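Exercise (ungraded).
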Amino acid sequence: MTETAEIQLPEDKPLEIAGKVYQSRLLVGTGKYHDLMETGHAIEASGAEIVTVAVRRTNLGQNPDEPNLLDVISPETYTILPNTAGCYTAKDAVRTCKLARELLDGHDLVKLEVLGEHKTLYPNMPETLAAAEALIKDGFQVMVYCSDDPLLAMRLEEMGCVAIMPLGAPIGSGLGIQNRYNIRLIVENARVPVLVDAGVGTASDATIAMELGCDGVLMNTAIAQAKDPIRMANAMRLAIESGREAYLAGRMPKKLYASASSPIDGTFF
Amino acid sequence: MFVQVNGEAMELPGGATIAVLIDRLTLTGKRLAVEVNEDIVPRSQHEQFTLSEGDRVEVVHAIGGG
């Protein structure tokens, strides 16, 4: 709070996922950065408390001389959210989650994503539903990447998913939210947090997601592939906060024609 | 004996444990998870779990991803 801010706004209810409370509504990925130092700095600038990671064979993905990702993004500081990126079947997604739980000493919060095809990385919803069912039965807390279909979102909630995460646009596309009305419908129906996952390209996209009433936004490429990722991480932090405040404030209704802001009465000409 | 480690054939002494395999991979002490024939082998069992000819072993860790 700055000294000039004398007016105290009522406090927002913080984001709660699977019984844990978070102050930040921005969730970030750790892929596509130049190196681990940049990853660490960008995540710090983003203010995110939940950070996604991928699970891969040890002979892939890292320079052996570099520290491990989890040494930089410590599970003591951040809530690590392992994803099932790259999985195209429920079976592979369930296997990945079990390995992640072992990797993270029994931590059972996962981001489920089962992809349909390489070109769009659009979610394969029948496999996603099958995987969610198996994972929930096995005790996982499932945050689920899904299509923006309001009925499927409700179905996933009824099954016991702890967060519904519809895409705004294809993963890594940066196209922004393509179907605001569907996101809005999903938010209206949901009793668990709804987070836009994928599709955000710049700060205004994140703000729109929050203005629609989303509980948070998960992003990776928009920050990592910005010219200055650390600055963009900060921009996203502000965008999420602004969008949330605007949502809580309640925007004015849209009108087709002008409505003068200055009184018509008392003019002297 | 030969086992498949992360998709590649690897020769290990007969009766080698997962701990021996991890040592061979110079990954001792690293944060990782191990699966043998698609079943998780918990870290607490790495010292005791002996591998058999033809076992398919996956050794994974966390890397950057969204």
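Further reading is listed at the end of the chapter. For now, observe: Chain A has a mean pLDDT of 94. The longest strand of chain A covers residues 50-57.
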